[in-house]
Queue: 3 jobs
Job 1
Amino acid sequence: MIATLTGTPTFYANQLVMVCGGVGYGVAVNETTAYALRTATSATTATPATPGQITLFIHTHVREDALELFGFAKPEEKHLFETLLMVSGVGPKTALVITSATTNEIRKAVEEGNVSFFVAFSRVGKKLAQKIIIELKSKLGSLEDLDLSESNGQGVEVRQALETLGYADHEIRKALREVNIESLSLQEAIKACIRILSKK
């Protein structure tokens, strides 16, 4: 079972190929990851790029007639993908499309019962969207553990500052879900969280 691939990302047509030790592995990635890789490597269909190596976290999907590899930039994204696969009726291609959204966006849509959010993805109809919401509600704790807003350094610093000020873990998580800390400086992010928490 392939867990990770470390190699050179190259695009042939719309297919991502990870070249590892002279062997090219076709890997399916979501639109967000594909865009990031294309931007970083300046890969084109005419002139495959040969940049430095990267690591993708791999979900290996085995069928009777095929073996497919699905790649993710972070282990949290792979976990989210596999969580979606546990929903009855969601196959790997549909789960991959949905993972183009962030964990925060998906969790918020589940909490609010926002069917339109999921229907906006290709391959997802109204009935499947309702099923995703119902089945993911029991897994919200798992999704909360994958809060990507806290995975970068600034998210950790904001959390530490709020903990120092005496806020509880559940309060901090709620504030971090509501504040786009990546678009703010550290001080602005802390102040924005405090403003939200002071209203509780």
Note: Confidence is low (pLDDT under 50) at residues 43-50, 148-152.
Job 2
Amino acid sequence: MIARMSRAVIVVDDDPVFRGLARRILNACGLDVVGEASTVRDALETAAALEPDAFLVDVGLPDGDGIDLAQQLTAMPWHPRVVLTSSDPDAATQKDVRRTGARGFIPKDELPNAPLEELLDTG
């Protein structure tokens, strides 16, 4: 039997409790959370250092807009996958998702039942 390789994900959210919850949900999907960031600046620095396969990005960050961050992340040379999230179910439109190159938007309360492996897995 061949084991599926886990994919490296960074969680970007200013709430440490949510980052912990997201880590547990992503790990349960077979994804490997290799880093966390609480700001746009931290996310960009962590991205450059770790070059992960994917990101889970909160729309509302203390130093900027997660939607703009998603566009910067998807434009990186290795083209990571990005999924946007927010506690506000109307924080990102389908137009925002398409414009940024993100794979989707999932309200935080729907995260446990969302198809995260499909959205974030590059394999």
Note: The chain has one domain: 8-120.
Job 3
Amino acid sequence: MEKTLILLKPDTVQRGYIGKIISRFEDKGLKIIGLKMMQLTEALLSEHYSHLKEKPFFPDIVSFMSSTPIVAMCVEGVDCVNQIRKMVGITDSNKAEIGTIRGDFGNSVSYNLIHASDSPETAEVEVKRFFKSEEIFDHNRLLDKYIRS
């Protein structure tokens, strides 16, 4: 079973969309196996966004992502990385399709509500970055037999 990381960014928290967004993943049949609210540090953000460190907008990312707590989630499901990427929509919320999270709730490229791992390999690294092993819970749901293939 594939696992991935989702971060609900400060704009999600500030706009009161945590529940609405989480419910979309649950409605899809994906299983939340880790969930926590946390305040991101500059060190963690520098590691997570290391590929953007040399960009002129990097300080703005750090400032924004550390401005309020975020919600980190580890989600499990069949092909969940691809499923979630489709559900999230493209980075620029103004161009994201209606029906995606960014298309329905977003209004900017900078404040785009959510981060989702872009590959299973990235997900493995990112989950370990944000969650200790004891914060991930392997549990069975009665409905799993109806949604897993």
Note: The chain has one domain: 2-147.
